[in-house]
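In this section we walk through a basic example: taking a raw amino acid sequence and producing a predicted 3D structure, encoded as discrete structure tokens. The instruction is simple. Fold the sequence below.
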Amino acid sequence: MSKRSALALCLFIGLICPDRAPGQPIPMFSVSLDHETYVWCIDVSDSMGSSSVLGVALEAVQAEVENSIAALDPLQSFSVVAFNAGPTEFSATPVPGTATEIAAAQSWVQGLLPSGPSCVPAGVIDALQIAGLTSLDPCVILVSDGAPSCGATSEALADIVSANFAGTPIHAFFIDTGASDGSFMEQIALQTGGTFLAVPSGPDAFRRGDANDDSMVDLSDVIFLLSYGFVPLSPPPTCFDAADADDDGDVDVLADSVRILQGLFIPGSPPLPEPLSCGWDPTLDPIVCTTGCP
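The resulting token sequence is shown next.
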């Protein structure tokens, strides 16, 4: 079913359709992915407990996946697979992006712990099988720190490609923990028509709204911004892109403080613009970040 047909059906049977257009892209590390069915495939091997530029790799991935899942609407479907020596599933079939399923998936993702080897083909093939249960524009979102630790890399790649008989795109997000150089992940994306991204490790990565550069967005960022604007000799933000909470290309301490406060305390307020976790600015503007994520 096309996105337009899904919306027409929604209106025809009298459902209250979501404000988002059905199938509107969802964010993943500042990349917009535009599908109707998503199957996340998360590496939870030992190495994902290592430190990266994002902090502990798995914790950063959990936060990002939870944020992406929250962007789904009921006319989209999804599941989540976690893997180390073998796969475990949130759901063996795609489920609709309802508030109940989203909350359950977020709780499941948050409970994941790093352990064991990284058998990437086992996880990806399981995710492909789940994605193959629907014809509604499926994709697999692979998040890993690189090459498998069980079996040869060339054989692992061949196994994944041969199992993908439906031609499902695999979007590969490489988390740099020092375990590998990311080339294996890049080849998966290249050979399946997916997107590859090495999650930012340079100085231009930041978190939107994290004005005081402490790895979180909270009331202290508002206090920092207001102090910068109105208290003489207060330090400036180390990353002006992060302080630009409304992403208008300018740090206006009042407007940006209000935008953060709305997100923190007013239910139903839209989320801050991407990136919500460590990532790149998806919009072009004159301000930059030169410090990177703490």
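Looking at the output, two observations stand out. Residues 30 and 67 are 11 Å apart (CA to CA). Residues 1-20 have pLDDT under 50 and may be disordered. In the next section we compare this with other chains.
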